[in-house]
Amino acid sequence: MTQNYELRIELLSDLCVSDGGVYNSMLDIDICHDEYGFPYIPAKRIKGCLRECGIELADWDDDPKDMERRVNALLGSKGSLDNHARIRIGNAYPTGYDEEIRIVEDSQGNPILHPQNILNHFSYIRSQTAINYDSGVAEEDSLRTMRVVNKGLVFVSRVEIEDDVEEEDVELLGSCCAALRHMGISRTRGLGEVKAALICLESTSIEKECSIPLTQGANILKYEIDICDPVICKSTTAGEESTIDYIEGSKILGIIASGLKSTGEDFIDYITDGKMICSNAYLCIGGKRAQEVPGYLYTVKNNEDICINKLYENPERRREYSDKQLNQMKHCYIVDDGKSIRKGSVETENRYHHRRPEDKAIGRAASVMGDSDAEFYQMSSISRGQTFAGYIMGSERQIKKAYEILSSQYETYIGYSSSAEYGRVRIRVTSADTGKEPEKASSKDFVAELAAPAIVYSDKAMVTTEPVKLEREILATIGMDVAHTGYTTESFLRYTTIGGYNVTWNMRKPTISTFDKGTAIAFHFDKPVEIPVGDGIYIGERSTEGYGEIRIKPYVPSDEAYSVGCDSNGDMKGVIKLDIEGNAFLTKLCEESMREYIQKKAVLDANKYFSEIKDYMKATISNMILLLNECSTMEEVNEGIEKRFGGKKSEVKIEKYSYAKELISNTINNTDGIDRSFAEENEITGFNADSNYIRMTYLRTYLIHAKYKLRREGKA
User: What percent of the chain stands above pLDDT 90?
Assistant: First the structure.
C-alpha cells in the first residue's frame, strides 16, 4: 500500500524541458511531448530537481550529513539495492490531461486534433542569437530556435509514497517541493521559473474486483497487460539503451512474489507447491496473443504482401518464384489462422537523460573529467498504449493465489526505472480455468517452433546451441526415443543471448547464448508417430520464468499451403466527426486552427491581386493597417475609413476612399461562408465562429501580405 499525493507545478515563466531530440529542421531545441502533442515534464527530471533541492537544504541544515542521508533514503541511491527509492513519481501533464487525452484517443484521425495543433496550443517557438560586442551585430551562424511551453500552465504529477515512510520524511519531500524554483534549460536566462507544491490526496488507492470468475480446480490463468507508461525490459547486450520487445515471465513472477511478501506468505513454499510456469507476455494483435515469426516464413523482395512458407517448398513450386528474390521475414510478431498472416511490431522509443555534475557551479549538464556521474545517456523502452498477453500454469493453489494478487491490483509497476517515468501497467485477468492437456495427433511430418528462447544443455551439463541437442530435447519432451534415427530434419535456427539479475543474491545471472524464439525444426519420419499438439509445452531449463515455450503442429508437405496473404495494415479508421460544443479545450483548438485557415485564404487571395497596380494603393494599404491596429470591429474600421477618406474632394482622395471600400467589400464577400467550409473540411459540429473575428483576421493578413508583395515587386 502507498500514500498518494499530487505534485502541482505552476509555470511562472515559459519553460523548455528538452528531451535532446530534434524532430524537424526548423527547431534546434524541442520540448518533451507525447505522441498526441501534449507537453509533459519527465518524472526523472522532476526527481533530479527535487534531489538538487534536498542537497541544497542539507547545506543549510545543522547536520548536513544526516539530511543528505534522509534525502538519499527517500529518493534512492544509485547502484544500491538496499537503499531503493521510497517514492514513485509520474510524468507531469497539464491539468485536464486525462479528459483531453480521452477525447483525442476517441477522435483520432480528425485534423483538428493533429499532434502539431495540440503542441502549438500549449507552446510557441522563440528565436535567439549571439551579438558580437565589437561590431554590435549578430554573430554568423548563431541564430537558434527553441520551443517553449506557455507560462501560466499548471502541470500535475502523481506521487506515491510507501506506507512505512516516516512523517518527517514526507515533510522533507514537501520542503524540497517548496524549494523548487527553477527547472529546464536556460533557467539562468529567464526560462523555467516555477512554483511547486505537494498536496496530499484523501484516497486515490483503487482496488479492483476481477469480473472473470475463478473456476474450481483452475490450473491456468490468462492475463493481458496494458502499458500505461513506457516500460524498460533491459536487454543483456545493451542494458537500458536497448529494451527487449516483450515482457519476460520472470517479471510476472516478481509481481506474485511481491504480493506474497505483503501478506507474509513464503515464496519458496508457494513456488514448490507444484510445477509453475509464467510465460512471456507477447504483443496482442487483434485481441490475440501473437508469436514470433517462425524462421521458415519468407517474403518476396519489395512485396511483403505475399508470404512464402519454406516448409511446403519443392522444385516444382520453386519455379513460381525463380525470377524473384526471397528474403527471410524480419523480426516481427504474427497471428496465423492458416489462411492469412497478420503482422505487427512492438513500438519502442528512445528517451534522452542526463546527470548534472556534482559541482553545482557548472550549472548545466556536461561531462566533467573525473566525475563519472556527469553524463548524457539514453534509455530505450516499450511505448505506452500497447497490450501484451501471457499466461500462468500451476497447481490449483498457485493459480488461486496468483488470481487473487493479479486481480486485486488496479495498477502496478514492472521493469527498470519504475520509480520515475517508467513501468506503470495495468494487468487484467482474462480467464482462470481448467486447462486441457495437449491433444495427441499422429503424423509423419511435424514442425516444432520455439515461442520463447530455449536453454538446452549438452551431455556434459553445459549450455549448448548445437542443433542436434535441440532436436533431441524436443523428441525427449514429446516422449520419443532420442536414439531414434528414422527421421530427417529441416532447421531454421535463430540465436540470442540472455542473462538477468538476482536481487536476493545481489548478483548477475550467467550470460549465455541460447536458441531464440522463432527457431523452427521440421521433422520427417518414415512412419507416423504420436505427437502432442497445442499450447503449454515447454523444453529446457528455467521454464518457470517463461523460457522454452514450444508449439508443435503436424503438416503435410504436399499440401498447397505454399503462399499465404500477409496483412500489416491493421484496422483502418476513417475521420471521426467531432462535436466541440461546450468543450473549452476543443473550442480553443478550433479557433487557433481557423485563424490559420483564414490566413492561408487571405494570402492566396492577396497573391492573385490586381493586374493593374495604381500608385494610391500602397498608401491606402498602409493607412488601413494603421487603422486596423486602432479598431476592434469592422464597424469601427468603416467609421475610420469615412473619417480618413470620406468627404474629400480631391481626385486622389476619392480614389483612395473607393479602393478602401472595395477592400472592405471584398473581405465580406471572400469570408462569407468560410466558417461553414472550415467545419466541413475538418469534420466538426457545434463550432460558432465570430464573423467579426473572421473578417478582421482576413483583412489584416490580406493587407500585410499585399503590402510586402508590392514591396517585393518593386512597386513601393
Answer: 31
